């Protein structure tokens, strides 16, 4: 029996396995690698991308500790990897309180800065009540997810690295994001309109996956009504970022990047095995079960050169590494939807020159780009400081208002805009409700 026949005879929400029981009082959610919910049913590859394979209701909590009064649904859905091989992925969908199914509700796909291989950092785990995900940036981003809900919009929070932690992989993060939206809009359990206007938003590592979604959406998911994409400090050039961050405070990030890309590129995996020292191979194994913050703290100011048998600058010039750098670089396709790009000039993680290059490439390709270069912020502070700007911009896109005439805001700090302070005050109220477990 094929998948379509099976879907007609049962329910597409519960193909292959019985529904999972909710967490028992006091118990913790299973890690993704141990949770049967993440395993796709037999024959799922015959379903169309975005098909819901399984669903469940989950409790969310800030930092895993403070439960939130939210209606959250997790969807296992069919998607593709960069080689067009069928994959299953999970998104967590939340609708605002009091959502009226009879009225259109915009939806924002928010891509967290997972930046790790460890499944503890995946949003579908880290956002859940009693999840032990210490060191996951995702748990801190809950406040921004709540800010989206406070606008009256639904939100999809996909595991955009897939089930195997493919951080930095080209193309497929975009597929996971877009198919997560397809699943959210198709799910009767969620109750959204199929023609709901869609916004995309992500910062740093989340900005990278959001950019891939923007680049591939025109061909991969043209039916989705994506009206705006907000890219906060996306990792425009992984190769440049790796070399610049090596031996810096943030040197754990390029190490995590290599650990993830080994899973994507078999030739790179063999290359790393060939040139890594005993300590280097042990480091790669350790990073597979290390959260983002833990990796940064453990490896600060360490050089990757101490874990390989040849100078780093020599190895990165080899064809196998250059191929990875070329394929993972953004800018090959101009996005179809309007783009808002935000970048701190004094960013210590992502070079403003890389984002200048990306903005120029998108503009030259015909994309409608609004680019904000911030003079006073840096990588960590720009995300919250720019949140009021992003929400205002998405609100205008959902209302179909004209795009700003001034396409490039050169060196103008968001903190000099009075609207920023009003927006930050609202964000503070949202944060207070999240911290106290109040409804959003």
TrEMBL record:
<protein>
    <submittedName>
        <fullName>Lipase</fullName>
    </submittedName>
</protein>
<feature type="compositionally biased region" description="Basic and acidic residues">
    <location>
        <begin position="1"/>
        <end position="11"/>
    </location>
</feature>
<dbReference type="GO" id="GO:0004806">
    <property type="term" value="F:triacylglycerol lipase activity"/>
</dbReference>
<dbReference type="InterPro" id="IPR005152">
    <property type="entry name" value="Lipase_secreted"/>
</dbReference>
<dbReference type="GO" id="GO:0016042">
    <property type="term" value="P:lipid catabolic process"/>
</dbReference>
<feature type="region of interest" description="Disordered">
    <location>
        <begin position="1"/>
        <end position="40"/>
    </location>
</feature>
<dbReference type="Pfam" id="PF03583">
    <property type="entry name" value="LIP"/>
</dbReference>
<dbReference type="InterPro" id="IPR029058">
    <property type="entry name" value="AB_hydrolase_fold"/>
</dbReference>
